[in-house]
Amino acid sequence: MSDGVTGADGLLTGPDGRRRCGWAGSAPEYLAYHDTEWGCRVEGDRELFERLSLEAFQSGLSWITILRKREAFRAAFRDFDVEEVAAFGEADVHRLMSDAAIVRNRAKIEATIGNARAVRGLDLPLGELLWSFAPAGPRTRPVVPGDVPATTAESTAMAKELRRRGFRFVGPTTSYALMQATGMVDDHLAGCWVHGRT
Q1: Active-site residue, selected from the candidate residues 33, 38, 131, 176
Q2: 84 tagged catalytic
Q3: Which residue of 54, 74, 126, 188 pairs with 45 in a disulfide if CB–CB is 3.0 to 4.6 A?
């Protein structure tokens, strides 16, 4: 995937000559996700529900596993339409547990259905709730991978509020990964060609 190895700065040079975050070079799916999606602003409720659900399914697994199953997840969960997923019952849980194309974890499947019901019960749009935890003002950009946190005060607060509202599989680490994925924070390294794109 790359013309060389990741340098001390955490960057690598891709086959296109561009410098990018080193993690993007380990698989074609990572490269595409890094270059076109990770860190881009996402605000729509359906899109945010999808990202929240996928981050929950990723818990304990490699993100590449989820990326490779993403289209299957979309098909299995009705394109993450909140109303449709909230209406899922035990027959749907059984169907999903039998679907080898997705991650067959009953707790995560039931949490996704429960989270759709939690979204439906919100007194404000999901996007408004989630984005209320985005850091305000300028933020120091990560220069090397060690500068990128696993959790922040904002992600801890987001997780606490989501759990208070009935969401599951939404700890501080999952919440921070969601913030990174949806552009609430920009954790592209300072030398990465897509840094500051959001």
Answers
A1: 33
A2: no
A3: 126
Is the separation of the CB atoms in 144 and 9 below 8 Å?
yes
pLDDT digits (tens, 9 = 90+) for 51-77: 999 999 999 999 999 999 999 999 999
Cα–Cα distance for residue pair 127/120, rounded to 1 Å = 12
Residue among 50, 55, 131, 176 flagged as catalytic: 55
23 is catalytic: no
Predicted pLDDT of residue 5: 59
Which helix (H) or strand (E) covers residue 116, if one does? Answer: helix 106-120
Cα separation, 169 vs 53, whole angstroms: 9
Instruction: Name the residue among 180, 175, 141, 148 with its Cα closest to residue 40.
Output: 180
Ranges under pLDDT 50 in the chain: 1-3
CB 39 within 8 A of CB 180: yes
DSSP string, 39-98: T-----HHHHHHHHHHHHHHTTS-HHHHHHTHHHHHHHTGGG-HHHHHT--HHHHHHHHT
Record the pTM. Answer: 0.92
For residue 75, what are its two tokens? 């098909």
pLDDT reported for residue 2: 41
